[in-house]
Design brief:
Chain A is α+β, with helices and mostly antiparallel strands. Chain A contains five helices and six strands. The radius of gyration of chain A is 18 Å and the shape is globular. Chains A and B meet through strand 4, strand 5 and strand 6 of A and strand 4, strand 5 and strand 6 of B. The first copy, chain A, binds a DNA duplex (30 and 30 nucleotides) through helix 4.
DNA sequence: CACCCAAACTTGATTGATTCAAGAAATTGG
DNA sequence: CCAATTTCTTGAATCAATCAAGTTTGGGTG
């Protein structure tokens, strides 16, 4: 996790003003990978006291736009944020409990970045989400198969 | 697009009761790839007259659970539905206008299905979303680069 | 060092897709 | 044809996220 000075420098380098809410949010995302907005609000309030949810929403948007954090939002789930940026890693999402883990793709650093037919689109990112069951849900489940034979 | 008889057979085969709303929704998804729920409601009402939005939501959920249609929901966008199922194709999404096109991955039929480290997850699907700019938005845009050098 | 102004935060309300709930209608197996 | 369960209708509720207006603050300027 970044120190306050590191956070400050990261913000300045990105051309963002340095405020206590921004430092707290940036630190919270580093300390809590894949946390949703509500969790981050909680962490920030533990750190600073009263902070409006609107401020956290604004900060998360600014940090995402600046490339300091990355927003991920698996289908049917809330938006989540993480600090690993720029390394083109992907995510494994549990269909049962929604937990998320990081996954570096087996193919290489930029997997599947070239679609066979891009329909004239200028593609700049390939986002991969692996869907499945996490270890906990695998052992816990007694029945309820995903798709019976 | 499937005939009414085909739709009926598909529903029965999937173990679903055959109703007019279900036939209409299934046909609408076939006729309008990547349509969102609201568009589908409109198409269904053009076909049948009054149909509750709740019915369409329920039907879309049932069809998705049965594997007759596929739900896709790019981050920050509404849920959309399509009829191509089981062929592991992917999608290109325009960052500007949100339009979606199909893309078969260059790597093969099941690209990247094995993550280098799956953290003990039992993975059953790899969902890939290519992000970029569609041809229309590429020509229209005068400035506003995504990330300046 | 005081001032200024745009950016950032607070407060409070609103949006809008989706879901929940209870009763009416329709499908299908017997 | 009838009963039982599923499905549809109606109407309300949820809740993450956004919008809006006013206040505060960061950080460069004179």
């Amino acid at each position: 996790m970044p120190t306050i000075l590191n956070s400050e420098h990261m913000l300045r380098t990105a051309g963002l003003r340095v405020t206590r809410p921004r430092i707290a949010v940036l630190t919270a995302v580093y300390d809590n990978p894949h946390a949703d907005t509500d969790s981050i609000i909680g962490v920030v309030r533990d750190e600073l006291g009263a902070v409006s949810h609107q401020a956290v929403y604004d900060v998360l948007r600014a940090l995402t736009a600046a490339g300091l954090v990355r927003r991920i939002q698996p289908s049917g789930h809330l938006a989540r944020y993480e600090s690993r940026v720029g390394d083109n890693h992907h995510h494994v999402v549990c269909r049962s409990c929604g937990s998320i883990a990081d996954a570096d793709c087996a193919v290489g650093t930029t997997p599947c970045l070239t679609a066979s037919d891009d329909h004239g689109f200028a593609i700049d990112e390939a986002e991969v989400i692996y869907w499945g069951q996490c270890p906990d849900c695998l052992t816990t489940q007694t029945s309820s198969p995903t798709r019976s034979p």
